[in-house]
TrEMBL record, chains A, B:
Job of this protein: Catalyzes the reversible transamination between alanine and 2-oxoglutarate to form pyruvate and glutamate.
PANTHER family registered for this protein in UniProt: ALANINE AMINOTRANSFERASE, ALANINE AMINOTRANSFERASE 2
Record text on subunit structure and interactions: Homodimer.
Protein name: alanine transaminase
One Pfam family here: Aminotran_1_2
UniProt enzyme class: transferase
Species whose genome carries this gene: Cyprinus carpio carpio
Span of domain Aminotransferase class I/classII large: 113-478
Pathway given in the UniProt record: Amino-acid degradation; L-alanine degradation via transaminase pathway; pyruvate from L-alanine: step 1/1
Length: 495, 495
């Protein structure tokens, strides 16, 4: 109720926009990666900056997949190309390699007024879309890619939300069900909340390296059909937070399932360049679909996502990404382009960064040597840190960590004693949140509780990144170990 | 109805996502600025590129407020700062001024790992938020601005949609009504469609230079209350497409109205640096609110928007912008930050560009001279083109153009003979769409029909930008004149 009379009588005027009147879908949204524990970590950081004392001298932010923030260096060639695009006067500088200038010229020629400051067409700069298609064809060993199916996006998150927005409709029992892996990257649950869709969980198999089990997909789908209309399945491969790299067989099973049940497939492949385990390999959903034959390849509706934020470039701040759209109804595609046009276009610097990623220095180019060195160094370090993290965590009593086959995270299972579980419940919080808050307060290490990603009832986890420098990571893991042992002691009554 | 059986029997498999199953809110969205006529212009461009012949040699795209695409040059200093941020190795280059290096260093110090490739905090880099607050205080001659009320956005469009998303809720007669000016920039109608809110039109007064009439606001509000819950009023000042710059008195009346009716105010001020008429001045909604006294300044909920895309920098492709949030309920603010966090952060290059705009070279700095020259040149040219456009169009029989007081567009009223109106109706299109299509086909000039922005029934307009070079603009206006005269002849039966 709002009075329409003025309030110059001195009474307190009610605000129009309050928690009560706020869009309820917004209230429902949660995003743990930047949620309460990260806010707390920020408060502690400020406290330390202002001279406060804690049992530690710095907060280690291992909550977010931001490589540069943890000291990873940008790829020189990428920054040279983007700098040339930003300030073309640099084309006259002898300090910039010809390889970079050539690419920058190509990009700028595709821009209005040859400027990064022009809007591009809403799907992105045409020559960049073509470069991406060429990259996909080469990555997938010849599977054809049509540049008109490629859309540049403002990070992968933007593309994922746009596609979900097309798919989600209906009320009550006809509401769109969106199948997502548990554990998942909470962009998906946040989007589902905001769009008032139905979240349909399928549980990854922790005892089997977080593999996707087709029987679990069937179970989940059948159960969901009772109360909603499951229409889309989301897969993250390599996985976030789990780090598992799916086998080709598993991907085939998912695609076959999607074909049988007429599900729209969204494959989040932003970690495709982050595969560490020697016995694992990235298989694109598109390539596997192709190899299943034309009846599948010409019918399953699939959108695959990539980003500039991960891989070996770690360019999160550029907000670059693309999606490739397979077998989308042409009328729906026109609607997609219309929806994209309202936001005009993705940031041009991010589009340029994406172009360099799909069109990097080749062996015959002068810039290849340094590029290859930098790329190998980053990926080698990540692989080393993946292995180290798994090893150290598995040596801690009460922690079990599946192999970090890919991506940028470890998602170890932590044993939380019943006394701690009860204390958490009494405090109205999730047990792994209590754990992570205590870890933060005692060691300064910020990780995200597994409850923020989803997990089987009665199990607890946390997600940490493997991004800190090797030295810092060792320190971090040592502190986690000591904390966990202490935590177990404290709550098992063995004092 | 979807069969759950496989279709390996050779029958055509139905797609999951079709126009029928698509989110109906997406279907409802229209965005004329990149709509059907622009698509047609693109087709003609490709036809010309492939060697086809038309009565003209090039398409002139006067449909979108993209300055660089029409030949405007970037501000050198801005590009220097962003290039330095992108490739900090350039800090060692003597070709870059110290003023630019200082700003770049400041920005990078505010970035994770001192890299533009890190995510920033979701509201934006702290020092940039502070710089924006300082700019606002200086612009508004001392009215205090709190940096914690400033949020960087991915262009203004992103901020506008985010705020609307907070505000829009309810079903049936409790649906949120959003008051928007007619004519309007169709981001607003698109957002309202997509969010299933109710569009509440208030008509600007064409006979009075497109001024806002408070009586019309009252009329519109009272009529809307019958079928929805009007909760927010959007104002664009300087106006798009109208180019009117609102008087201080008018802004006061709007704010008083919002206070009385408990409306949330959204003021789109992206053209605040584009004021040409010597008798006009930009008054920020915030400053006017402040001058109305504490009972208003401490209670009216107001969000003001700015962008890097317009002004004198024209950096559309960077997708930079900010919003300042006044008197927002603190619990709602926390919800806003949560919503922003799902998209992580706005692009860092855009944030850096915004920083330069609010923290440009000062008179005592070496770089001031060239900066001031470039800025004056751009704004002087725009002012000249505004005047020229108004003058030439007003000299055409059957065209009446209000003064282009600000922004980047002319929105002339065009007389369309009844015969043409009938022909358009028979073809199932708006009369001004027919007009603009004919204009495009005969002259290659692409402008946007007034029906895409909204107009009083029975009136017709088109929106053109004043961005082409002065020479091209003269050619364009001459062709429009000749076309219009011919069009009048053709449809008035005087052959």
């Amino acid at each position: 109720f709002r009075s329409s009379a003025g309030r110059l009588d001195g009474k307190l005027r009610e605000k129009t926009l309050t928690l009560d009147t706020l869009n309820p879908q917004v209230k429902a949204v949660e995003y743990a990666v930047r949620g309460p524990i990260v806010i707390k970590a920020g408060e502690i950081e400020r406290y330390l900056e202002e001279g406060g004392t804690k049992p530690f001298s710095e907060v280690i932010k291992a909550n977010i997949g931001d490589a540069h923030a943890m000291g990873q260096k940008p790829i020189t060639f990428l920054r040279q190309v983007v700098a040339l695009c930003t300030f073309p006067e640099l084309m006259d500088s002898p300090s910039f390699p010809e390889d970079a200038k050539r690419r920058a010229r190509r990009i700028l020629q595709g821009c209005g007024g040859h400027s990064l400051g022009s809007y591009s067409a809403s799907p992105g700069v045409e020559c960049i879309r073509k470069d991406i298609a060429a990259y996909i064809e080469q990555r997938d060993e010849g599977v054809p890619s049509d540049w008109e199916n490629i859309y540049l996006t403002t990070g992968a998150s933007d593309g994922i939300m746009t596609i979900l927005r097309l798919l989600v409709s209906g009320k009550d029992s006809s509401r769109t069900g969106v199948m997502i892996p548990i554990p998942q990257y909470p962009l998906y649950s946040a989007a589902i909340s905001e769009m008032d869709a139905v979240q349909v969980n399928y549980y990854l198999d922790e005892d089997n390296c977080w593999a996707l089990d087709i029987n679990e997909l069937h179970r989940s789908y059948q159960a969901a059909k009772q109360h909603c209309q499951p229409r889309v399945i989301c897969i993250i491969n390599p996985g976030n937070p789990t780090g598992q790299v799916q086998s080709k067989k598993c991907i085939e099973e998912v695609l076959h399932f999607a074909y049988e049940e007429n599900l729209f497939v969204m494959s989040d492949e932003v970690y495709q360049d982050n595969v560490y385990a020697p016995d694992c390999q990235f298989h694109s959903f598109k390539k596997v679909l192709y190899e299943m034959g034309p009846e599948y390849f010409n019918s399953v509706e699939l959108v695959s996502f990539h980003s500039t934020s991960k891989g070996y470039t770690g360019e999160c701040g550029f907000r670059g990404g693309y999606m490739e759209v397979i077998n989308m109804d042409p009328e729906v595609k026109a609607q997609l382009v219309k929806l994209l046009s309202v936001r005009l276009c993705p940031p041009l610097a991010g589009q340029a960064a994406m172009d360099v990623i799909v069109n990097p220095p080749q062996p015959e180019e002068h810039t290849f040597k340094q590029f290859h060195q930098e790329k190998s160094s980053v990926l080698g370090a990540l692989a080393e840190k993946a292995k180290l993290t798994e090893k150290i965590l598995n040596a801690v009593p009460g922690i079990k960590c599946n192999p970090v086959q890919g991506a940028m995270y470890a998602f170890p299972r932590i044993f939380i004693p019943p006394k701690a579980v009860e204390e958490a419940k009494a405090l109205g919080m999730q047990p792994d949140m209590l754990y992570c808050l205590r870890l933060l307060e005692e060691t300064g290490i910020c990780v995200v509780p597994g409850s923020g990603f989803g997990q089987k009832d009665g199990t607890y986890h946390f997600r940490m990144t493997i991004l800190p420098s090797i030295e810092k990571l060792k320190v971090l893991l040592g502190k986690v170990r000591d904390f966990h042992i202490g935590f177990l002691k404290e709550y098992s009554g063995l004092e």
